[in-house]
Automatic annotation (TrEMBL), chains A, B:
This is WUSCHEL-related homeobox 8. It is found in: Nucleus. It comes from Sesamum radiatum. Residues 83-147 bind DNA. Residues 1-22, 144-173 are annotated as: Disordered. Keywords: DNA-binding, Homeobox, Nucleus.
Length: 202, 202
DNA sequence: CTTTTATGAATGAAGG
DNA sequence: CCTTCATTCATAAAAG
C-alpha cells in the first residue's frame, strides 16, 4: 500500500521552511497500530539475523542464502523506529497554566479535574486529556527524581530518606542509558518484497 | 478495534494558526487486514527462528553462543538484552497472541484461562501468570482511558459508550478509496505465504 | 548537518 | 477495578 508520500511531519509545519499543504491519510491511531505491528515483525527479523550470524560465523557453509540481509538498514540498524509520531508540544500559555497548578500543590489530578483543565487549556491550543494526564505524571516523576539525584550528588547522606522503600537511590546519570543511536531517518513501511524503499528526504 | 473514533487533532498548534483538516482514508477493516498480514509475516519469521534454533542445537557446534561477542553499541542500539531486565517484556509473538485474544472480545480472563494462556505463551518466551494477568488488567484500563479521551473531542461521533472489541461499521463516506486503489495495484503487505518474504530489499 | 538534551508517551507492575 | 509509580523509548528542540 502506498499511503506513503505524505509524511506526518507536515503537521509540524512550524519552522517556516517548507510549508505547503498537506494531507493526512492515516490517523495517529492507525499509524500507531501499524507501527507496532511492523516493529514486531522487524524485531523477529532481528532475531533471525542474529541466528544467521551465529550460524555462519562458525560454519560458513551453513547455507545462508539470504545474502546481504545484514546490510539491510531496516534490519541492522534498529528497526523499531518506523515512522515518527508527532507529539504534543504545550504552548507557552498552556505550560504556564500547568506549572501554576502544579506549584499550587496539585501534584495529582483526578479524572474530573483533568477534564476541566483540558477544557480550559483548549482555549490556548490543541490539547487532549491524555496530554494533561501525561504531563502531570511526568512532572511528578521528574520532580521526585531530581530530588533523589540531588540528595545523592550534593549531599553526604546526612539524612537519606529513611522511609525510602526503594533501594533505587543511585545516581542515574552515572550510568546514563542514553544510547541514542544516530539520528534515525524516517523509515516508511516497506514491503519485504517490494523493493521500493521510500523514505523521507532530509 | 478502538480507533473508530479518532480525534481530529492538530498537534503543535502553537501559534494558533496553521492546522488543517484531514480525512480518514483507511477503514478499520482495511487496517485489520493489514494487521493480519503483518502478523502473518511475523509468524513466519518466528517459525524460521525456531527452525534455526533446532537446527543449530542438533549440530552441537562448538561456538553457538548467542552471547554478545563484542556487542557493537552502534549496531545493537535497538536491543540490549545483555543487561538483566527487571520487568517482563513481551516478545512480539506473545503480544500478538495477547492482542488477538483481547480483540476477540475476551477482555477479562479467569484464572483457568490465564493458566492455559500462560502455557501457550511460554512457547514464545518467558512469561508468568502474573504477567498475563497484569497485561489484561492494563489493557482494559488503557482501553477505557482511550475512550474517555476520545469522548472529549469526538462528540460529533455517535455514542461511544461501550468499547466493544468489534469494530463498528463505518460509514462509507470516510473511505477514500481513490487513494488506496489508484496507486495501489499491489499491496505492500502481500500474501504471507510468499516464501521470499525474507530477503534484502533494494 | 550531527549530536545532545529535554520531555511527551508507552507500559509493566504495585497499591488500595 | 481504578489510580499511581518507575522505567524506558522516541522525538522535538537545542547545542555544537
Amino acid at each position: 500500500m502506498e499511503w506513503e508520500k505524505q509524511q506526518p511531519e507536515e503537521l509540524n509545519d512550524r519552522g517556516g521552511g517548507g510549508g505547503g499543504g498537506f494531507v493526512k491519510v492515516m490517523t495517529d491511531e492507525q499509524m500507531e497500530v501499524l507501527r507496532k505491528q511492523i516493529a514486531a515483525y522487524a524485531a523477529i527479523c532481528e532475531q533471525l539475523v542474529d541466528l544467521h550470524k551465529s550460524l555462519s560465523s562458525q560454519n560458513d557453509f551453513a547455507g545462508v542464502r539470504f545474502g546481504n540481509i545484514y546490510s539491510d538498514p531496516l534490519v541492522t540498524s534498529g528497526a523499531h523506529k518506523i515512522t515518527g509520531r508527532q507529539r504534543w508540544t504545550p504552548t507557552p500559555m498552556q505550560l504556564q497554566i500547568l506549572e501554576r497548578i502544579f506549584n499550587q500543590g496539585t501534584h495529582s489530578v483526578g479524572r474530573p479535574k483533568v477534564q476541566e483543565l483540558t477544557a480550559e487549556l483548549l482555549q490556548h491550543g490543541q490539547i487532549s486529556e491524555t496530554n494533561v494526564y501525561n504531563w502531570f505524571q511526568n512532572r511528578r516523576a521528574r520532580s521526585k527524581r531530581k530530588q533523589q539525584a540531588a540528595a545523592n550528588n550534593g549531599e553526604s547522606e546526612t539524612e537519606m530518606e529513611a522511609e525510602s522503600a526503594h533501594e533505587k537511590a543511585k545516581p542515574d546519570y552515572l550510568q546514563t542509558p542514553h544510547i541514542l543511536s544516530s539520528r534515525n531517518e524516517h523509515l516508511t513501511f516497506q514491503n519485504p518484497q517490494a523493493s521500493s524503499a521510500i523514505h523521507s528526504v532530509d
